[in-house]
Amino acid sequence: MNRFLLTMLAGVLLLLPGCGGVTVETNSAAVDVKFNVSRGGKAVNDLKLNLQALAKGAGAVGDIKDGVTTIHVFPGTYTYYVTAGSNEATLAGIPEAFQSGSMDRKIEIVDASPIEVKLD
């Protein structure tokens, strides 16, 4: 009797929607991307550039020094925002809109080409 119930349960589980035909999409190999980050045409310093994946990809963070950070990141679509580095006061001159991710602000990373990020 137990064997019969187990066989029936296995059959039902195989018929449940969503259990078959799963496609797994892998990311391309990660690349090192140089980001030039500025505010009002001037390089920013002592901030962190945060990349938040919107589709495929993976989140990543880089320390900005003299307007530049290089981040090891998977190709994909990201929104970005900045957070404070070693000193919370560095965020004082950055508009609030750039202190959190936004679906209106996207970047597409396809290879290791440098990317300009303007915080204004």
Quick rundown:
With 120 residues, the chain is mainly beta. The chain has one helix spanning 2-15; strands at 31-39, 42-43, 47-53, 60-64, 68-73, 76-84, 107-109, 115-118. It has a single domain (31-118), classed as Sandwich (Immunoglobulin-like), CATH 2.60.40.
Give structural notes.
- The strands form 2 sheets. Strands 1, 2, 5 and 8 form a 4-stranded mixed β-sheet that branches. The protein has a 4-stranded antiparallel β-sheet with strand order 4-3-6-7, with no helix packed on it.
- It is built from 1 helix and 8 strands, in the order αββββββββ.
- By secondary structure, the protein is mainly beta.
- It has one helix at residues 2-15; strands at residues 31-39, 42-43, 47-53, 60-64, 68-73, 76-84, 107-109, 115-118.
- It has a single domain (31-118), classed as Immunoglobulin-like, CATH 2.60.40.
- It is globular.
- 12% of the residues lie in helices and 38% in strands.
What are its keywords?
120 residues; mainly beta; Immunoglobulin-like; 4-stranded mixed β-sheet; 8 strands; 38% strand; globular
Write the layout of secondary structure elements.
Blueprint: H1 2-15, E1 31-39, E2 42-43, E3 47-53, E4 60-64, E5 68-73, E6 76-84, E7 107-109, E8 115-118
Parallel strand pairs: 1-8
Antiparallel strand pairs: 1-2, 1-5, 3-4, 3-6, 6-7
Major sheet characteristics? 4 strands, mixed
Order of helices and strands: HEEEEEEEE
Kindly report the average pLDDT value. Answer: 84
Principal-axes shape call: globular
Structural class: mainly beta
CATH fold category name: Immunoglobulin-like
Instruction: Specify Rg, calculated over alpha carbons.
Output: 22 Å
Strand content: 35-45%
Supply the CATH architecture. Answer: Sandwich
Uncertain residue ranges: 4-20
Number of strands: 8
Which CATH class applies here? Mainly Beta
Please count the helical segments: 1
Q: Into how many domains do the coordinates divide?
A: 1
